[in-house]
Amino acid sequence: xxxxxxxxxxxxxxxxxxxxxxxxxxxxxxxxxxxxxxxxxxxxxxxxxxxxxxxxxxxxxxxxxxxxxxxxxxxxxxxxxxxxxxxxxxxxxxxxxxxxxxxxxxxxxxxxxxxxxxxxxxxxxxxxxxxxxxxxxxxxxxxxxxxxxxxxxxxxxxxxxxxxxxxxxxxxxxxxxxxxxxxxxxxxxxxxxxxxxxxxxxxxxxxxxxxxxxxxxxxxxxxxxxxxxxxxxxxxxxxxxxxxxxxxxxxxxxxxxxxxxxxxxxxxxxxxxxxxxxxxxxxxxxxxxxxxxxxxxxxxxxxxxxxxxxxxxxxxxxxxxxxxxxxxxxxxxxxxxxxxxxxxxxxxxxxxxxxxxxxxxxxxxxxxxxxxxxxxxxxxxxxxxxxxxxxxxxxxxxxxxxxxxxxxxxxxxxxxxxxxxxxxxxxxxxxxxxxxxxx
Length: 439
Description:
Arc Repressor Mutant, subunit A; 4-stranded antiparallel sheet; alpha/beta; 9-stranded mixed sheet; pyruvate-formate lyase- activating enzyme; 2 domains; about 20% strand
């Protein structure tokens, strides 16, 4: 049996641990769940509203997200009309009167700004009118791409008081972008960045990827320094993940040693330039600490997702529509969503046991610099986290985690190997369902 160090460093970039459990573990519920009965038990009226727009110009070689390149105006219009129907049912589910019960509205995808500007305006107005969202007083975030961002779109988003824009650049080298099937021109990249950074938006995030086969430490640092020249409030550095059924899967040529080297040098440059590392991937500008430093209270957050690739969660229940990576299956699920008429029930998802809730709590805590507060864990579960998970003690002994008072948080080495550490807390039941997942 491998020791804990060998287990962690054996494959540091196997999976991106962004949520638990992964949607591959979701299954049909034994009985459909009435959402009105479910959401009447919400903890508070500060809910995240997530809007999923599944459309993309092309499918990047590393992407296993629920997204489709079946893009035409009529299909997108039909999708938006269905979103509005779902929104109308949601108003009844949540018993919304005149108040605004959402603290944030997050658009993800896909590429939300693939929508024609008139459709996006209609959708934002519908959110405002049907769900009583006051965009002046909620946190509004959207993902975009170089090809789809222009001055007219920026003007529309500003009219709805946009707070955060995240743009996937990945690299400033055309050869590297082509290698990962990301077909963006360098001209469009610079135009989009100029538009975004000429506007006074609270948070502007740039994504970069390291681990592209032809990429060198030198070429990545050129991309990093180019991104830093814009002084973004936030940056995400993603290792190149290779997943099944993606274009890059058959020709997986990652050099993990080189990737670890890039990570270390990039981290130092970001810190030297006034950024704080909050997780393996996330860096925030020091003056944005009060706005962007991870909040421990997110452990108890609740989210409602609208759209065919969105997930929702409340208490121990996660639900969504079916998940897929294959293009044909994704398109079928989108078509089924467009034809759907009743949005009052959840039929597919995962009901977390007490043990799974504990695992989710640990994973969402120990991979961030804010760490895990053992007292809060005890208040939540009435057990000691070190008794519940002996692996935490081993990670502390091995130097991947630090125990300081009642707080457990990742060391520098722990941050570097966060994905491997997170994998250690996946339950056998969840892993088995992931392994048996079929589209």
